[in-house]
Amino acid sequence: MGISLSCGQAKWARSSLGSRALNSGRLVPVPRGIFITLEGLDGSGKTTQIRRLTAWLARRNIEPVVLRQPGGSATGDRIREILLDSRSTGLTPMTEMALMFADRAQAIAEIIQPALDAGKIVLCDRFTDSTEAYQGGGRELGSEIVLDLHRLICGNVQPDLTLLLLPSLEASLIRARRRNDRDQSATGKDEGRFEAEQDAFYYRVWQKYREIAAREPERVIRIEGDLSIDEVHEQIVESVAERLMTATRGV
Ligand code: TMP
């Protein structure tokens, strides 16, 4: 990818993005960063790709704010423990969704919004598309309630770009379950509550992700199929570079 943005250019790009405010009768740009989310099933390779994208940005003198959901804030990390620990038995789908939104509201207030206001690039591993896919689709609560809560609780903060990794369902599940076993023996932490779900649950999540992508093709870039890590990375940086260039042109 032949694009290279200097820090100055990136700053300009960011300030040309967001809303515009009235100041002495003139419209002036209000600085706002770029909000990029990565989405996909457990085991779709998001964590690796976020690491690769962060390094790619760093080589262009751009230092993004990186976080994951659930988690990110101190309170969010505690909520994450409740949500992912398989000892949290009997959580109702509504409780699960409410906790996801509690975590997200805190992350927006503490991390995401301040970073965007400061003109930074925010890379978030999962956001409300995950709630729509997992609780809306997987738990069958439906999209409407998730989108309503998002408007109410998250002030409708929307990503500028979402990279949706969609390897085959089979490959994702094998990877996710293997990773959870490995992580648990390495850290003693049990984050396997979702991985223990049946394949039918994951099929519904997968379908809902595809539905979201079809509904919002401008925002959601689908990276589909069992591609190599390098191939996925190439597609990601192509989309990110395009967004940065668009921002630099102020379009
Ligand atoms: P991860 O951080 O390893 O991707 O794990 C987070 C798990 O939480 C994953 O199984 C997806 C699930 N999740 C939801 O069910 N709803 C949500 O809104 C989010 C953010 C995550």
User: How many helical elements?
Assistant: 9
Q: Count all strands and give the number.
A: 7
The structural class is alpha/beta
Strand content: 5-15%
Task: Please describe what this structure looks like.
- This protein has helices spanning 7-15, 46-58, 74-84, 93-117, 128-138, 143-154, 169-187, 199-215, 229-249, and strands spanning 20-23, 26-29, 34-40, 65-68, 121-125, 161-166, 220-224.
- It is of the alpha/beta class.
- It has one domain: Rossmann fold, CATH 3.40.50.300.
- The strands form two sheets. It has a five-stranded parallel sheet, sandwiched between helices. Strands 1-2 form a two-stranded antiparallel ribbon.
- The longest helix is centred in the middle third of the chain and has 25 residues, at 93-117.
- Mean pLDDT is 85; it is low at 1-30.
